[in-house]
């Protein structure tokens, strides 16, 4: 009798744990820092979605961290750079993509632009994960998303593999405050000029009236698969089911096809525009838009 009860309880606990496990932990993100410097990844969960912890952490050069992601999670991942702690107050602040929390954890705060964003919605329509890399809020680091082990969907890699900080048009460039003039981020035209034409706001808030600008084309030409302006969605959102994701900050511009390992690369546009790999500091200003 006792033994039977024990077995039944054991079986129940085993099944309960098993279902709990599969319901909560279906996907992992492996976040990799290939930059030559330390980064401080930040994670923001969308409204009414299961919380994801941590919301921020430190990742030294060459290191990676694998995180379990709640099944119906939606949100964004980015990386803060050039962070330091103010000795008198103990507050953390970062030169790019700060979340303003003053701490390593962002605790519900998003990236202050400019920031390259890796965006995800897991188990959405038809059970597919939707993901993209967005430069709509500007750019601070190259990012690559690789889907591994997907069972449905194109599972293409996406991202922005080119370092655009040196090539950023001068009017969009964010430079280090210490007089070195080193480009550390590149603003979107919306943020730099606040003009509804660039922001796709007010009268420009529809797919018919919101168009790419010479500035959004600068980002799109360099990183053909990334989102470059608000309605740039036909070629820039990717889907996959049942995958784990590798999010690499500062990937090598020539990442091997073997590593990318898409199930069936359905992307219309190349991941890297080879003509843009050599854009240098001498090519700094775009012709002024009319
Ligand atoms: C600015 O800071 C960076 C990183 O700390 C350093 O490498 C560079 O030499 C500094 N530049 C100047 C002009 O102080
Ligand atoms: C690559 O960049 C050039 C400009 O340098 C642009 O004309 C071309 O359309 C881009 N190609 C793609 C596939 O985006």
UniProtKB/TrEMBL annotation:
<protein>
    <recommendedName>
        <fullName>Thaumatin</fullName>
    </recommendedName>
</protein>
<feature type="disulfide bond">
    <location>
        <begin position="160"/>
        <end position="223"/>
    </location>
</feature>
<keyword id="KW-1015">Disulfide bond</keyword>
<feature type="disulfide bond">
    <location>
        <begin position="200"/>
        <end position="210"/>
    </location>
</feature>
<dbReference type="InterPro" id="IPR037176">
    <property type="entry name" value="Osmotin/thaumatin-like_sf"/>
</dbReference>
<feature type="disulfide bond">
    <location>
        <begin position="155"/>
        <end position="240"/>
    </location>
</feature>
<dbReference type="Pfam" id="PF00314">
    <property type="entry name" value="Thaumatin"/>
</dbReference>
<keyword id="KW-0732">Signal</keyword>
<feature type="disulfide bond">
    <location>
        <begin position="168"/>
        <end position="186"/>
    </location>
</feature>
<feature type="disulfide bond">
    <location>
        <begin position="190"/>
        <end position="199"/>
    </location>
</feature>
<feature type="disulfide bond">
    <location>
        <begin position="83"/>
        <end position="94"/>
    </location>
</feature>
<feature type="disulfide bond">
    <location>
        <begin position="35"/>
        <end position="250"/>
    </location>
</feature>
<dbReference type="InterPro" id="IPR001938">
    <property type="entry name" value="Thaumatin"/>
</dbReference>
<feature type="signal peptide">
    <location>
        <begin position="1"/>
        <end position="26"/>
    </location>
</feature>
<feature type="disulfide bond">
    <location>
        <begin position="99"/>
        <end position="106"/>
    </location>
</feature>
């Amino acid at each position: 009798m006792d033994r039977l009860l024990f077995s039944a309880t054991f079986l129940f606990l085993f099944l309960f744990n098993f279902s709990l496990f599969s319901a909560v932990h279906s996907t992992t993100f492996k976040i990799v820092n290939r930059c030559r410097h330390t980064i401080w990844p930040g994670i923001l969960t969308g409204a009414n979605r299961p919380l994801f912890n941590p919301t921020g952490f430190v990742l030294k050069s060459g290191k990676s961290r694998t995180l379990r992601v709640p099944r119906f999670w939606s949100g964004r991942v980015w990386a803060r750079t050039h962070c330091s702690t103010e000795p008198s107050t103990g507050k953390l602040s970062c030169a790019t993509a700060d979340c303003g929390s003053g701490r390593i954890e962002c605790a519900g705060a998003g990236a202050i632009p400019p920031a390259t964003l890796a965006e995800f919605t897991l188990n959405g329509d038809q059970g597919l994960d939707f993901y993209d890399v967005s430069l709509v809020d500007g750019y601070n680091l190259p990012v690559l998303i690789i889907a591994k082990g997907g069972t449905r969907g194109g599972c293409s890699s996406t991202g922005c593999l080119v370092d655009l900080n040196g090539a950023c048009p001068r009017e969009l460039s964010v430079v280090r405050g210490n007089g070195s003039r080193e480009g550390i981020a590149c603003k979107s035209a919306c943020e730099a000029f606040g003009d509804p034409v660039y922001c796709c706001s007010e009268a420009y808030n529809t797919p018919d009236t919101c168009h790419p600008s010479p500035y959004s084309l600068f980002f799109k030409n360099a990183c053909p698969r990334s989102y470059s302006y608000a309605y740039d969605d036909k070629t820039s959102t990717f889907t996959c089911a049942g995958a784990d994701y590798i999010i690499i900050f500062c990937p090598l511009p020539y990442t091997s096809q073997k590593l990318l390992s898409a199930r069936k690369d359905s992307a219309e546009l190349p991941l890297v525009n080879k003509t843009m790999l050599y854009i240098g500091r001498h090519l700094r200003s775009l012709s002024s838009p009319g």
